[in-house]
């Protein structure tokens, strides 16, 4: 039997893609179940062993807001040296201090593309968020760390509706100017469609920014995540956020469901002959194992298909 | 609030798409629940009222094989004149006779692209299936009916693995030569990826067949259905099979899950500014209503998102 999916390359696509795994942080942050720290460490280790090149480990956000990740320091201790290469989210200088103490080498900040979500999530105006990020990014850079900037609500916002491309490009430019090395453009509520993705990438390109410094972060709320990833591939994007087993969502956004599942993305990329370095079977078995800890089946289509037919 | 999804056209896509609704036939055929005939009639009527231009109503297959559709004749009586414009599946001449008696104007046959599935599903070899179809298609055409031909396993087959493009093109050519007016190319087990879709369409085009006579029928088993639809749009395909609420699958194929959901497809097309004539809200409310009759939530992402946030 010929292996599936059949590999058929398409013209004009990148030959290689980097998957930025967000399951342990963005995924578990949005799960009700409190997962033991040892299980989280094994989750990160298994994902790294499956060939995922970047695994975001946790977040140094205040436990009051995200109790699921209150064990961030313990997790980093458990992960040891390998954990220092895993990016961690730092919402502010206090979070950065904790990450630096633990030897983190890569951090991420989390901004908003819209006024309303900046108010709801950061309790700041859109402009004020940059003032908050400035010392965090500067100090991280001075300490030799890479800084990724998440930009949420890049396509639509539950309070404001459709978000203009120019607005997102403007926010992105300010984050690059502050010193971010990569932007993760998030469709936090999953409403974006393929043409909008292309327009957003073109907007950044047209404003003189490098597409190589952009990552796309899609949610599958309206079933569009993978179609949007295909559109982004055609637009030249080579870094994609994905969550093993499709874990997670956004607790602050109305009707947000899970992230694009790593396995569904890998299936498409494998079919397109695009290298990721990821062992699909290992990610699937990791997601099945984690689903057992969470007490519910994985929402990833590929996990469901392969787990029920172990061909 | 600006309406979502934001419409952003993409270059080189068709301006209009025909959605061929398969929920009442392909969907309900694969549901365990036996739905009362009156509910089925209302389902078809509501889908037509929602602007779906073609709604396949039922199948005149032997009730022993598909007990869910044993009421095909009663349903056609209930639908009356409107039902005669709804295509019906006819597996063979006996089915055609029943459809003709009831005044059907459009019929569909169901073939296989692979040897093994022809054996399993039709109890015939790949070659023998054409001999079975020949009198059915000829007599339907002589009676002035349109004949659509479904081709299953066009991308992968659970027993044979990847299916070569040339093999599918060869099967398609024979069905056109018999007198089919449209082919519906099915990814019955949902394993195909975007580049494979493009290659398949190019294969038909290269063999001199008209892309306007091709429809694509995607399943979401591996989460690829909508990405594949986007690839097919780029390849010039303007007819897409979809199932309201994502109902259905294939009872004979290992690990097959639901069809591409009509709502998820409409969301993408609306975002791309591609006309379908379909009222999304009406389809969603129809799917929610049908989910109530089936006793389980709709698998469509858009239905879940819009039904829980009736904004």
TrEMBL record, chains A, B:
Question: What family name appears in the similarity comment?
Answer: Belongs to the HMG-CoA lyase family.
Q: What is this protein called?
A: Hydroxymethylglutaryl-CoA lyase
PROSITE patterns given for it? PYR_CT (PS50991)
Give a GO biological-process term: L-leucine catabolic process
Native organism? Nocardioides agri
Q: Which GO terms describe its molecular function?
A: hydroxymethylglutaryl-CoA lyase activity; metal ion binding
- Alphabetically ordered keywords of this record: Lyase, Metal-binding
Q: Which InterPro entries match?
A: Aldolase_TIM, HMGL, PYR_CT
Under which EC number(s) is this enzyme classified? 4.1.3.4
Specify whether NAD is a keyword of the entry. no
Pfam families annotated for this entry? Answer: HMGL-like
Boundaries of every Pyruvate carboxyltransferase domain copy: 17-284
